[in-house]
Amino acid sequence: MKIPVCSLAVLAFVGSALIPAAVPGQSAAEAFTATASVSEGGGATAPVRISIERFTTEKEREAVVGAVKSGGTAAVKAELAKAKDAGTIEVGGRKTPIKYAYARPTGSGRIVTVVTAQPILYLGAALPSPKPKAGFDLGVALLVLDASGAGNGEFAPAAKVDTNEAGAIVISDYGDAKIWLKEVAKAK
């Protein structure tokens, strides 16, 4: 199932007060593997490993959501800079600290959102040596998982966040091509 990043962002960041902050039975530490896939520009794939050591508390989630609404990417980056590392995301042998890892239950599984306080890599414009663009200062991965921990998702290795006119959180990626996370599975 392909869900636009902005739709997943709304689901992942803005939770209903009726939905619990943690998924029952969720362990404190877990890891996932996936294949990042870009179909445009001749296509490319890369292995991704997301290792979560701790999940974000409800209080921390509220602070990040408030930062998005009050100041966009810059405010989120500042908020995340204060946070303890929650794990790592590894792409191409390079590990980047995760500062935000939040899980929300869905009907048959959950959505896990991880955010880094720095870009993971710049993929897209001006390959093979893409340059940083102002404001694309975060990395975001969204995993849509079933009850067994398998699923798919989206990956924005250099992203910015903001809100739209309706107040929904929107994630914009540095590159023009969507990066899908395929074959997401719990790591052994």
Can you put this structure into words, describing what you see?
With 188 residues, this protein is of the alpha+beta class. Helices cover 18% and strands 41% of the residues. It has two helices and nine strands; from the N terminus they run H-E-E-H-E-E-E-E-E-E-E. Strands 1-2-3-4-5-6-7-9 form an eight-stranded antiparallel β-barrel. Strand 4 and strand 5 (109-116) form a beta hairpin. The longest helix has 24 residues, at 58-81. It is globular. 39% of the residues are buried.
Helices and strands in order, then pairings?
Layout lengths: L4 H9 L16 E9 L5 E9 L5 H24 L5 E5 L2 E12 L3 E8 L21 E9 L4 E13 L5 E5 L6 E7 L2
Antiparallel strand pairs: 1-2, 1-9, 2-3, 3-4, 4-5, 5-6, 6-7, 7-8, 7-9
Quick overview of this protein structure:
With 188 residues, the chain is of the alpha+beta class.
Strand portion: 35-45%
- Percent range for helical residues? 10-25%
- Show unreliable segments: 1-26
SSE pattern: HEEHEEEEEEE
* Overall pLDDT metric: 82
Largest sheet: 8 strands, antiparallel, barrel
Number of strands: 9
Computed over alpha carbons, the radius of gyration is 15 Å
Distance between the termini: 24 Å
- State the helix count: 2
Q: Structural class of the helices, strands and pairings? A: alpha+beta
Biggest sheet, spatial arrangement of strands? 1-2-3-4-5-6-7-9
In one word, what is the shape?
Answer: globular
